[in-house]
Amino acid sequence: MTEATQTESPTATQAAAGWIGRVSLVRTADRAAGVPRAIDLLGENTVQGKDIFLKPNYNSADPTPGSTHIDVLRALVLKLRQMGAGHITLGERSGMGDTRKVLQQRGVLDLADELDFDTVVFDELAAEDWLRCDSPGSHWKQGFYLPRLVLESPALVQTCCLKTHRYGGHFTLSLKNSVGLAARRLTARSHNFMDELHTSSHQRRMIAEINAAYSPALVVLDGVEAFTNGGPDRGRTVRPEVMLASRDRVALDAVGVAILRLFGTTPEVSNGPVFQQEQIARAVELGLGVDSAEKIELVVEDEAGEDFAAEVQKVLLAG
């Protein structure tokens, strides 16, 4: 297990040159303790002195893993502050419910008042608050739009859940969580980008393409509980009891898929090598992270983590 630390986000050049995707793995049922432990294991501080845009997973108001657990959100905000981060702004667009009501029901707005961070409901932004984005070889017919405040943020931090996706995404981890950054419509009568996404045969490639518009400073994945089928709102629940952190979305999602496979998941998520999953394969094409399972380094803190990581690595490396 190497102690080398990456100092900047992966680029296409770095991925081709042998970038190592470090993913910290903590075995725990305690989310409040697991979040800072997973971040500390990475051994780097990419947020000090920077204002933060924070993207959680509140696609719906369903309990975790249908949405971000309030203990994860609290622990993450407190840890970012401890690391010297500046002002924190949380933003979201729910796909299965009214976003403001979802944030209220899940306790996010109350927590924002308590911990003094801002919240932005993307549905309430004006058309001029969005910027058009695209990626090489994009499958989006009219590109896609992300909020200006996201693209101009000094550091973006994301927290996601561990689950499958029954509406065509196959799984929803860090890459899929970025869909909540994208506009559904710019105006009431304009093109519906989410209808386009969910009816396209290229849906999983389009998910990856949203991620080409930004690079995260940090991603934390809550795998204390997971959906191994169904999702994103409800499904068969298991308890992997793991917290992950990384700056490499490809490596993180590959590890997440491997964990889903360990607990028995859908045929779509189970079939073929992990890196042939369409979300991951397209992200690799775009140079968003590591290009093979061999370039993933799992960083653990104890024997329990070591044993679990060994099982995950077997799945990652299987043909």
Task: Describe the fold and architecture.
It is a single chain. The chain has helices at 12-16, 31-42, 70-82, 99-105, 108-115, 148-151, 174-177, 193-199, 203-210, 249-262, 267-270, 278-285, 303-317; strands at 21-27, 52-55, 88-92, 118-121, 130-133, 144-147, 155-165, 170-171, 218-227, 237-238, 242-246, 296-299. It has a single domain, classed as LarA, N-terminal domain (Rossmann fold), CATH 3.40.50.11440. The two termini are 23 Å apart. 34% of the residues lie in helices and 19% in strands. It has 13 helices and twelve strands. The strands form two sheets. Strands 1, 2, 3, 4, 7, 8, 9, 10, 11 and 12 form a ten-stranded mixed β-sheet that branches. The model is unreliable at 1-9 (pLDDT under 50). The radius of gyration is 18 Å and the shape is globular. Strand 2 (52-55), helix 3 and strand 3 (88-92) form a beta-alpha-beta unit. With 319 residues, it is α/β, with parallel strands linked by helices.
